Write the structure tokens for this entry.
Amino acid sequence: MPELPEVQAHAERLTESFAGDALKRFVPITFTALKTAVPAPDAAYGTPLDDVGRRGKYLLLEFGPTTFVVHLMQGGRLLVDEKQSAKPRGGQARFLFEDGRALLLTEAGTERRAGVWCVRTEGRLDAPPLDHLGPEADTIDAATLAARFAEFPMRLHGFLRDQKAIAGIGRRLANEICHRAKLSPFANTGKLGADGAEAVLAAMRDAIAEGLAYERTRPDMSSSADRPGSVHKRTGEPCPVCGDAIREVAYSSYTVSYCPTCQTGGKVLADNTTSKFLK
Ligand SMILES: [Zn+2]
């Protein structure tokens, strides 16, 4: 799934390419693409795009008083639509601009969870789907992070992926941040304290900066296999810091990857909540 660096760099590319172009029409291609009824998308017709911003993993296409909030979910992309075919493969919705260009929201696979919310720009951060998001991972400070840890006592890996706790991080960066911070992905955030918050904050800033620097070199959004990292999807490979083999705990929808030497004092993690079912 695209995370903060990928979405941020993509927002910058879209702004560069489309700012100033007026919206001609918004065309949902599937029934589930548009998640809102009011305001109607035509409120934005004829209005130039101010810019494309970001909140968490959402893209914000701002047309004056109206904003389209786009979530790419797992396999979604918002790309320049060269062909503008009647039935685009994986097509969810299309933004047609007055200069004849278009942006197409596509989603690979069959889940169809990517979507568009049309909201009023004023107060957009306090309305669904953005109202549930925690502080931004790239701008939160250590004191706020420590307070969030106390408010959301859970495994560090789960905290980082929980958009209500902190916004913008997903499965890949959660693995990379725990590794950089030299903390177990199963460490309880309720016990990390101020020192833990400092360590996680530094690791988070570095991991985001690395991802963003890479993503900004690209003409389009990377695939997950292209993204920089040390542990994510590298099970069995040597840790670039200490040489130990990267281990994993696999769940149905994600994998926790870590280095035992760097992160758990050599301990191999097993998940007590699921391992008893895995015999
Ligand atoms: Zn290591």
